Amino acid sequence: MNATGALSHHRALERLYASAPVNATFDSRCEILGEGRARIVFTVGTNVYHAAGAAHGTVYFKMLDDAAFYAANTLVTDRFLLTTSFNLHFTKPVKEGKVVAEGKWVSGRKRVFVAEARLVDAEGEEIGRGTGTFMKSRIPLSTLPGYSARTIG
Predict the structure, then answer these.
(1) For the packed helices 57-73 and 3-19, what is the interaxial angle rounded to 10 degrees?
(2) Residue 20, CA atoms < 13 Å, CB-side half-sphere
(3) What three-state secondary structure class fits 117?
(4) pTM here?
(5) Residues 41, 43, 46, CA angle at the centre, nearest 5°?
(6) Residue whose C-alpha is closest to residue 88's, from 107, 62, 70
(7) How far apart are CA 127 and CA 92, in angstroms?
(8) Rounded to an integer, what distance in angstroms lies between the CA atom of residue 22 and that of residue 61?
(9) Three-state DSSP state, 136
(10) Cα–Cα distance for residue pair 94/145, rounded to 1 Å
(11) Is there a contact between 93 and 83 (Cβ–Cβ < 8 Å)?
């Protein structure tokens, strides 16, 4: 794919993320940083706390899965990927503030992809990490709301 096509695909993936109904629940945004790299920037608020006063594990999973997923989907321009497994490690509880999930593709270019992500709090400390396996689905990206074939101009 040429540079213009790659940029168009990356911006379309960012629009796809923004259009997902689940993302209206979270103060987050997706940034595609280049082939095989994605970042999810998220603001943790008390609305996602568990009973002991820190972010619930579902928040860790969502951010890490999304960052790894979008990093992997930068390599696939025709199909939506599906998460088939995800291994998650919690390393530190997080309270309110900005959190960043950095995802990067590790291996696979045909049907199955492996990507990892690291979650960092506002102080720059790691609070979690994970590795996911993703598989090409039968769902064309071009049929999904938010993803469009707009060109960069």
Answers:
(1) 150
(2) 16
(3) strand
(4) 0.93
(5) 155
(6) 62
(7) 4
(8) 13
(9) strand
(10) 32
(11) no
Chain segment 11-33, per-residue pLDDT in tens = 999 999 999 999 999 999 999 99
| CB neighbourhood size of 45 (10 A) | 13
3-state secondary structure of 132: strand
Segments making up each domain of the chain, as ranges: 3-143
Closest CA to 32 of 15, 10, 12: 10
What stretches of the chain adopt beta strand conformation (E)?
Answer: 28-34, 37-44, 79-90, 97-107, 112-120, 126-140
Residue with tokens 């997902």: 20
What class does CATH assign to 3-143? alpha beta
pLDDT tens for each residue of 112-151: 999 999 999 999 999 999 999 999 999 999 999 899 745 4
Both tokens of 17, joined, read 């993320």
Count of CB atoms situated within 10 Å of the CB of 149: 10
